[in-house]
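# step 3/5: fold
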Amino acid sequence: MKLERLLSIIILLINYRMLQAKDLAERFEVSVRTIYRDIDTINAAGIPIITYQGVYGGIGLAEGYRLDRNLLTNDELAAIVTALRSISTSYEKAQHQQLMEKMNSVVHPVDAKAFQSKTSRVLIDYSPWDNSARLQEKLERIEKAIDNCLFIAFTYSDAQGKITQRTAEPHTLILKGRQWYVQAYCIEREQFRLFKLRRIKNLSVDAELSFTRRPLPEQKDIKGKQSSISDNNEVVLRFQKEAHHLAEDWFDAEELIPTEDETWLVKKAYPEDEWLYSFILSFGPQVEVLEPVHLREIIAERVMQITKIYK
């Protein structure tokens, strides 16, 4: 993604006196325009990169500039490698491995063993249970569209099952709760929206039509984003005695309130939607909704509907 590409460009420019923008574009599979935007970003970060004109011109670091080895400590390098290893569990790319190898090579041999220990202390596994190849393909296609500012078109099925055709300007890929989303400006709705990748069908990228990136809105202003805590309602759940281990999978120990009959209460604020209904039903007979009353009635009605199907 963009961060790893920026770091890779910096390392390449340190190791080579000068490089061509088109060579960098081919290497990272982006447009030349994207490379020049990356160069502007690196310059803004305080690393002076100069574009040399002429037959033997190209892109290079300012004469005499050297990246201070002490700019990043071993702990900071280890944090970067840990982040790359974690993101690779959900979005695997060859560049991730290449960049991790480059980071490891910067560490002094004397510190190598301790560095390896630091980078293996934590791994955040974002990988989905089904390891979908289709999802991986969507990620790669949307990322290229973002890098090259290209429009995407797709069929979208929202949380209520409504199917619409959308054209959008993709800006950011977001991983939230093991689910991938694309933050994009929707042409039909004329505003930024969050689209879940698993609900996107018939994805196509318009290689001929590009857009100019827009300022990103505040997170609270994005349509399609889950409700804020202030919009949620308190739900009271009772877990059966034998379901204590299930409750611990989803709630902190401090959130589990023991009762005299050895069951467990949980009080939690949630937005009321299809996700909440499915979440509660996923516990089967091990959980009971106590409050609010209308939610208890909805769950009871759905249980009756399920029973009719199986009868």
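# step 4/5: annotate
Residues 226-230 have pLDDT under 50 and may be disordered.
# step 5/5: archive (pending)
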